Amino acid sequence: MAKSLNKKTPEYSAQQIQVLEGLEPVRKRPGMYIGSTDTVGLHESLREIIDNAVDEALAGFAKNVWIFLNNDGSATVVDDGRGIPVDIMPQFKKSALEIVMTKLHAGGKFGGSAYKISGGLHGVGSSVVNALSEWTWVEVKRNGKVYRQEYERGITKTPLETIENAAIDSPGKTGTTVSFLPDKLIFPDIIFDFDTVKKAIRERAYLVPNLFFHLIDKREGQTKEINYYFESGIISLVEKLNENKGPLHEAILIKKISKDVEVEVALQYNNVYSENVESYVNVINTINGGTHLTGFRMALTRAINDYGKKIGSFKNDEDSVVGDDTREGLTAVIFVKMPQDRIQFEGQTKGKLGNSEIQPIVQSIVKDGLTTHFEENPQTARKILEKIYLAARARLAAKAAKEAILRKGALEGSSLPGKLADCQEKDPSVSELYLVEGDSAGGSAKQGRDRKFQAILPLKGKILNTERARLDRIIEHEEVKNLIIALGAGIGETVRFEKLRYHRIIIMTDADVDGQHIETLILTFFYRHLPEIIRQGYLYIAQPPLYKLSFGKNSQYAYTDPEKDSIIQSLGSGAKVSIQRYKGLGEMNPDQLWETTMNPKNRILKQIHIDDAEEADAVFTMLMGDEVPPRKHFIQSNAKQAILDI
After folding, report:
1. Which of these is catalytic: 51, 98, 437, 467?
2. Whether pTM exceeds 0.90
3. Where are the domains of the chain?
4. Cα–Cα distance, 373 to 148 (Å, whole number)
């Protein structure tokens, strides 16, 4: 039985609090500490306080974390952990609580004894959030008493006081409550989004099994509550990610400690073709991967090849699979827990793990774990081998197809599709590509565009549903092939985003059911096969007008029904208004299409983002996958919300 890093460390007093420097830089350069001052940075502030509570659970002391979104715009985080120490630090003649809240790099995460692992901003979370808040107050239940202190923009406002007969939301005998109001002088928007906070705590609930999370929104008109608790940890997360994807076997869990690093990996293959892998260090989502992810991938490929050769499935090196083959239909979570003071992130916001020593540790543990699991569960191993062997065959077929279709020079633009009306501009940063539904609308767009920087590619009919197709089928489909060549970045293992020919790719379809279906098919292609285009903010949806309102010699366009009603109301009840409803782009002449939908001065574009990758993945699987019951349920549940244009 592997020992756990979460061994309780009873000593937690002023001696464990160390101070490195003051708070002055935080308000001057907040982005250095929380990444940005937009809504992302706002929610990062709340996550920092939540993670301090989670750290108490990781240390083995807290069982519950409560998060309240309050009516005055503030947030409150409560835990039933040990409570921040309140004894005096002789060298500062102040309480440990005040030092933690007002001094940068002060906390129990630097000495190596109070917390073995933690997820905060290198221990600076509380003081940074305090510095960037209009006000903060902390209540600590400890030593059978309740202590309270208040702060303003990081500066101590009241002395530490003992509260008589105080009641705190947490039922335990010890714990910490932190309330703070983000500073309007720092954050343009201080409104917490319930769904964003919900996603953050759901993520942490999967990573820390047996920890109860309670999110309560107490704001006026929004009162709601959600609770999370998972006994199975990352196994539960993998199973959730694989919902409706036809998992091929029971999820595999590998868990082991090497020195002071605990590695936990869960993986499960499914019937779809895309990969969904998430990686974490402590409770931090390393969205850009790092050495732990590299070690996992190397071990996965090696373990599968070794087992395939052992049982005779791979007779020689030509039969061996490569890394890309092992990713098809793979869902996995890699979770590394290690001492906070040893973590090396690339960048303050911790998107990528940089510790070189972690790669061989993860690689060794995962390789041994998979080898043992394959030997003990040969049926599971064979199902995985069959899936990966088919992926390898498809890769070779796709390679042959690409060599035949994407001839030398095609990606550089010398063999561009005949249907593409390219722009004169060669600088991708100012070039636009309109993906237009149908030849009729494509003709109008070609005539109405600005040839200098706008290119037009008409797409005939409904393109291939790439959710259900392998790469070899995708690049043989005429319309998708034309799109890939026009973009110039390639696809699959040969993708090169630096060769992308346009940095604004605009989907322009009719405002009807067929148009929305085509739009969804195009979005599916980009999300599954060129997601970096979405991540870079290069994908948009055009918003053509729904109505043309004519009155006398004047006319005005309306893009929504409320806008149409507002225009009619502004003209007065005596005005005679002729209303033309556009059923499709083809009904507009080139001048109208330019004026309403393509002219940068007038047009409305909707930029596509991936705010919640887990939710986006589930939605695409449900809408475009093979499983009918979930899609039927979705349609039945949302049918009443549909607006029919009959």
Report:
1. 437
2. no
3. 14-228, 234-402, 408-544+606-636
4. 52
